Amino acid sequence: MSPSVRLQEMIRVIRGARTQGEERGVIQRECAAIRAQFRQADNGTRSHNLAKLLYVHMLGYPAHFGQMECVRLIASPRYNEKRVGYLGAMMLLDEKQDASLLITNSIKNDLSHSSQYVQSLALCTLGCMGSAEMCRDLAPEIDRLLRASNSYIKKKAALCAVHIVRKVPELGELFTPASRSLLSEKNHGVLHGAVVLITELCERNPETLEQFRKAVPELVQIMKGLVMSGYSPEHNVAGISDPFLQVRILRLLRILGRNNETASDAVNDLLAQVATNTDSSKTAGSAVLYETVLTVMDIKSESGLRVLAVNILGRFLLNNDRNIRYISMTSLQKIVQTDHNAVQRHRGTIVDCLKDQDASVKRRALELSLALVSAVNIRSLMKELLLFLSSCPPELRAHTTSGIFNAAERYAPSQRWHIDTILHVLTTAGGDVRDETVPNLIQLITTATELHCYTVHKLYRALIADISVQSLVQVACWCIGEYGDLLLRGECEETEPVQVAEDDVLDALETVLQSHMSSPATRGFALTATMKLSTRITHNVDRIRSIVSIYGSCIDVELQQRAVEYNALFKKYDHMRPGKTLGPNYRLFMTFVSHSHPPQSVQLQMKAPSGDVIPAHGLGQVTQTVLLNNPNKVSLKMRVRVCYTSQDFVCQDTVQIDSFPSPAW
Amino acid sequence: MMHFLLLFSRQGKLRLQKWFTPIPEREKKKIVRDMTTMVLGRKPRSCNFLHWKDLKIVYKKYASLYFCCGLDAEENELLALEVLHRYVELLDKYFGNVCELDIIFNFEKAYFILDEFLLGGEVQETSKQVVSRSIEASDMLQEVSERPCSR
């Protein structure tokens, strides 16, 4: 029976095992038999036993007892044993095992073997798992083979040299002369190996790079030959002559042309030629075009060539192949800052990719779209982004909302547009916005004085439609508390006014107060708004008073405290009430300086203010406690902004706190 | 360069593993687990490129086998697809309409073919015919050396 059938028989038996336990049993028996046979004298079955062991190893079982067998088999004079021995070495030995050093001598001998197939085994193994020590030992041999051998060996020696240089960079000098002359070889395998080796040498040594710049004309010639040559059956892939070699040459030209005018000039024509003559209907051609684009963008190309490259990327965006769309986007992302105008021309296609099925393509399209927002395109682009937000995958929502807010803040064409946009986002994805959205929006609304009527109408409508989105509800409550009188007036320039009675407005606020969907913070907003309305309405002050007093015994301490204080205000300042819009909309904003968000470890808790009214003539004060928890003792600086109204004017004071008492950090 | 090439089935069974950088056994197992989880979890019409740590992962499904490789960040992904495709073509030529069972029962041959196509994580021969001829010649040499009279 031919020995290799025994290997296949074993595989069959293992696969026939019905449970993991049964498989383990079979394998244990086989391994025991293999071990025993290894200990015996040479009986012609060694290579097959090792092959069996390698199979078992691939299934995930330990096989280290086969390491010495690999060493022995490699030293055998028989090709079939060497073949499996070297395979075993590549699978079981790596440079960290001591046994790997033992094969150095065998490799050395085999590198000079009379059979090129034995030489090949040694080269392949050295290039795959050779340690730094082995590499140092055998480098002169490899150099010899680079110079004087047939093309079958030369191409392998070149890649072996690449491995050696990766392990022992100083040895690069040794291989530089030989690699230069390899460029004049005709054999594609050797050429490819040579280009890879030269690339490696140039990447590691700037002086070598300088030397090889002189080889640019030669490389250009080789490349031209490949691009303009007719059909070559041996190297043709989908109409492209040796795309593997073309891509490697383009990459080497990129490295040589980077930051160098002369080298870049010398390749300009070639790159234009490749870009226009390469058929990209299949992946092979697209791969070459892709590498060409990368090279154009990385060296000092003429502007016309750069535009050509960006247009290729734009064409890729329309390709049916999803892979090509994806790499086009990643490339465009890299150049959107440096070649902004060229990329802008493809904005339409990029925005269309927001609708792509593939999640990675969608994500890239979002990044690019946000990078392309400008004052000129903000309106149309925002429409697309908002459309995207309504159907975008959940994992992208937070990123999308913050991108939209940033863009809106930078390029809003009007305050009304800005407010509308933020409200749209809150309605669509209010649960995925950052915490500071609420105070930021309040701030924005406050400063847009001509739009107060418009804004309160919009927010009121949103509130009665849906009270589940906390951020939106909070802003709506605040706005109604602040500008409720404009709502009740029944007239508005910018939008259809609502006809609401005071009771309707109070109903809406009470619904928020009572709903289980409302968070404690939201309830606070609603209660404060209800309170503020007591100075803006005339008929329902008693209803407000009763709502407030109910919450005086609320289980939520925050709410209770607020309600009790508001109750007190009712009693104390009743005489000031009629006719005066005195109630200040006191709001304390605190932001951390030099951080766009508070440092992660610091927690901020703002207690309710001690009151809502600062009496005139210095007759009293309002205090508000802010608790800071700073467990990591991070150094803090804060900017405190206080907003309030006084006699119908919205006022704002800002103060910066640069140093906190030392126990704080 | 290519850091590794893995072939695994739809059930996540490993059929071939080639490593071009020295990695401890335990970490190899982890990488294999990560790759199979990531690739098998992809939706049917996703693109063939992924990111994992600082590597680009390129994978392609051929019949019941996934071919998955890990590349340096500066590698050309589209070309990597061509590399995987070329390997499949070489297997196909050798086994004649290759299927997963061929690779299971002749795994060592799959490695020998790979070792004539890639070396040290780079393409070593760009001509299909040259690779096929080298394998044929090596196989013949093996046959000769296996005969008892050549002892």
From TrEMBL, chain A:
Keywords: Cytoplasmic vesicle, Golgi apparatus, Membrane, Protein transport, Transport. One of its GO terms (biological process) is vesicle-mediated transport. InterPro entries: Adaptor_Complx_Large_Subunit, AP1_complex_gsu, ARM-like, ARM-type_fold, Clathrin/coatomer_adapt-like_N, Clathrin_a/b/g-adaptin_app_Ig, Clathrin_app_Ig-like_sf, GAE_dom. Residues 542-661 form the GAE domain. GO terms for cellular component: AP-1 adaptor complex. It holds the Pfam family Adaptin_N. It is a peripheral membrane protein. Its main location: membrane. It is found in: Cytoplasmic vesicle membrane; Endomembrane system; Golgi apparatus. It comes from the Eukaryota. Belongs to the adaptor complexes large subunit family. This is AP-1 complex subunit gamma. It comes from Oncorhynchus kisutch.
From TrEMBL, chain B:
One of its GO terms (molecular function) is clathrin adaptor activity. InterPro entries: AP1_sigma, AP_complex_ssu, AP_mu_sigma_su, Clathrin_sm-chain_CS, Longin-like_dom_sf. Adaptor protein complex 1 (AP-1) is a heterotetramer composed of two large adaptins (gamma-type subunit AP1G1 and beta-type subunit AP1B1), a medium adaptin (mu-type subunit AP1M1 or AP1M2) and a small adaptin (sigma-type subunit AP1S1 or AP1S2 or AP1S3). Keywords: Coated pit, Cytoplasmic vesicle, Golgi apparatus, Membrane, Protein transport, Transport. It comes from the Eukaryota. Residues 1-140 form the AP complex mu/sigma subunit domain. It is found in: Cytoplasmic vesicle membrane; Golgi apparatus; Membrane, Clathrin-coated pit. PROSITE patterns: CLAT_ADAPTOR_S. GO terms for biological process: intracellular protein transport. Belongs to the adaptor complexes small subunit family. CDD domains: AP1_sigma. This is AP complex subunit sigma. It is a peripheral membrane protein. One of its GO terms (cellular component) is AP-1 adaptor complex. Pfam families: Clat_adaptor_s (PF01217). Its main location: membrane.
